[in-house]
Amino acid sequence: MSASWIGSISYFAFTFLALQRYDDGSHTTALVWSTVLGRLLVELPIVILYYVNRIEALLVTCVTLSAIVLAATYWRNRTGAVLMLSVIILILLNTLGYDAWVELTAHPRVA
Q: Per the domain annotation, does 89 fall within a domain?
């Protein structure tokens, strides 16, 4: 659970700072996709090879991808309301979302 918190805060800050430094308004999508691909290309082969039956390990990936998208949304709008909404969403994903994810993945569904 702490990996999810650290990943979401780190990727939110990294994405926002990268957009603030390198984007002139026309490269937002490219920078966001570069960050997403940089995150996924390193992790997904490891998750696929070593966590085949551990779908709950993908929660950290989902939360950090959400943090990247929320940072880009905040960078586009730069209002306090968007920042507060982004923080609330990340808090909910890291707390209630974690519990819900564990509950959904722990018990196999019976058809």
A: yes
CA distances 11 to 14, 41, 81, 103, Å, are: 5, 15, 20, 26
Number of domains comprising the chain: 1
Residue 95 in any domain: the answer is yes
Residue 111 is assigned to a structural domain of this protein: no
* Predicted model pTM: 0.86
Tens digits of residue pLDDT in 70-93? 999 999 999 999 999 999 999 999
Nearest to 2 by CA among 84, 63, 87: 63
- Residue span of the structural domain in which 27 resides: 2-106
